C-alpha cells in the first residue's frame, strides 16, 4: 500500500511540477511567485464537493469539535495542540532547508529535540522560553519559493480548498510525516490516521466561531471561502519568502481582489 502511494505521488508531482520551468535564482523571492490564481474552471464540480464537505462538517466534524472543547479542559487541549505542533517540526525543518533557510531549519530542529525530551514528547513547549519561536512550513510553500505556479482552484473531499501546487505539497508533506516512518504496516497507518483525525478536531475546535462567522455573514459561502483561502496562502507565502519590507507585502495585497460576493467579517484562523 505504501509503495502504491509513493508511485502515485511521484506521478502526480512530475505531472504538476513538470509544467513549471525551474526558476532561476533571481526569480526566487518575488511578489509574482506568491500570487494565487483566481482561476476556477472546475467551479461546478468544486461546488458539489464543497457542499459535501459542508455536510460532513455540519454533521460530524463540528459536533465533535464542540463536544471536545466543551468537555476537555483547556490545559489538556493545549497539550494536544503542542504535541501536534511538535510532530510537525521535522517537516518544517526539511522545508526550511529546501527553501534555503538554514538558520530557521536549525531552530525547527532544536525545537523538536528540546520539546521531545525536556518537553515530554512535545506536550510542553520549553523551547519557546528559550526564544525558539514556532513556525510551520509545508511543501506547498516550498514549491512557491521554487517558482511553481499555483494552478486552478480546487476543492478536495475532506481536505477542502486547495490547488495543484498545494495538493502536491500535501502529498509530499504526508510522506515526510514522522508518523509515516514509525512502526510498519498497520501500526504506521493507524498512528497517522490518529494524528490526522486528532489534528482535524483540534484545528476545528480552535476555529468554531471563525468558520461560523464566515458562513453566516457571506452572501456566497463558496466564493467567500475561495477568496479567504487565496488570501491566507498568499499571506503565508509572502512571510515565508522573507520579503523585506511591509510595503512590498502591501503591494501584493493591493493587487488582490476579493470576490464581490464576500461580505464576511475580518477574521483570522487560529493556528496555535
Describe this structure in words.
The chain has 272 residues and is mainly alpha-helical. It has 2 domains: 42-146 and 157-206, no CATH class; 219-267. 63% of the residues lie in helices and 2% in strands. It contains 13 helices and 2 strands; from the N terminus they run αααααααββαααααα. It has helices at 2-17, 43-71, 74-87, 89-98, 102-117, 126-129, 139-145, 164-176, 178-181, 186-206, 208-216, 221-240, 246-254; strands spanning 154-156, 160-162. A two-stranded antiparallel sheet has the order 1-2. Helix 4 (89-98) packs antiparallel against helix 5 (102-117) and helix 7 (139-145) crosses helix 8. It is globular. The protein starts with a helix and ends in an 18-residue tail after the last helix.
Strand fraction = under 5%
- Largest β sheet strand count, sense and barrel closure: 2 strands, antiparallel
Strand order in the sheet with the most strands: 1-2
Q: Please indicate the count of domains.
A: 2
Radius of gyration: 19 Å
Low-confidence spans: 1-31, 243-268
Roughly how many Å apart are the termini?
33 Å
Secondary-structure element order, as H and E?
A: HHHHHHHEEHHHHHH
Total beta-strand segments: 2
Secondary structural class: mainly alpha
Helix content: 55-70%
- Number of discrete helical segments: 13
The residue-averaged pLDDT reads: 76
Q: Shape, please?
A: globular
Question: What would you call the quaternary organization?
Answer: single chain
Amino acid at each position: 500500500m505504501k509503495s502504491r502511494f509513493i508511485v502515485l505521488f511521484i506521478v502526480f508531482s512530475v505531472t504538476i511540477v513538470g509544467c513549471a520551468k525551474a526558476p532561476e535564482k533571481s526569480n526566487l523571492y518575488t511578489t509574482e511567485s506568491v500570487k494565487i490564481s483566481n482561476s476556477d474552471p472546475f467551479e461546478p464540480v468544486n461546488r458539489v464537493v464543497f457542499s459535501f464537505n459542508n455536510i460532513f462538517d455540519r454533521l460530524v466534524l463540528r459536533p465533535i469539535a464542540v463536544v471536545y472543547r466543551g468537555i476537555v479542559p483547556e490545559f489538556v487541549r493545549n497539550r494536544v495542540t503542542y504535541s501536534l505542533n511538535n510532530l510537525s517540526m521535522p517537516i518544517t525543518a526539511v522545508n526550511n532547508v529546501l527553501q534555503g533557510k538554514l538558520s530557521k531549519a536549525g531552530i525547527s530542529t532544536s525545537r523538536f529535540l528540546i520539546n521531545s525530551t525536556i518537553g515530554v514528547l512535545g506536550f510542553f513547549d520549553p523551547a519557546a522560553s528559550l526564544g525558539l519561536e514556532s513556525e510551520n512550513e509545508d511543501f506547498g510553500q516550498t514549491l512557491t519559493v521554487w517558482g511553481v505556479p499555483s494552478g486552478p482552484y480546487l476543492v478536495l473531499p475532506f481536505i477542502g480548498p486547495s490547488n495543484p501546487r498545494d495538493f502536491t505539497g500535501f502529498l509530499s508533506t504526508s510522506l515526510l510525516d514522522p508518523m509515516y516512518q514509525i512502526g510498519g504496516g498497520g501500526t504506521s497507518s493507524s498512528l497517522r490516521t490518529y494524528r490526522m483525525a486528532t489534528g482535524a478536531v483540534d484545528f476545528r475546535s480552535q476555529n468554531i466561531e471563525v468558520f461560523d462567522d464566515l458562513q453566516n455573514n457571506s452572501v456566497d459561502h463558496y466564493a467567500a471561502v475561495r477568496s479567504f483561502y487565496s488570501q491566507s496562502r498568499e499571506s503565508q507565502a509572502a512571510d515565508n519568502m522573507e520579503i523585506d519590507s511591509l510595503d512590498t507585502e502591501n503591494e501584493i495585497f493591493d493587487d488582490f481582489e476579493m470576490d464581490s460576493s464576500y461580505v464576511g467579517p475580518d477574521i483570522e484562523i487560529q493556528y496555535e
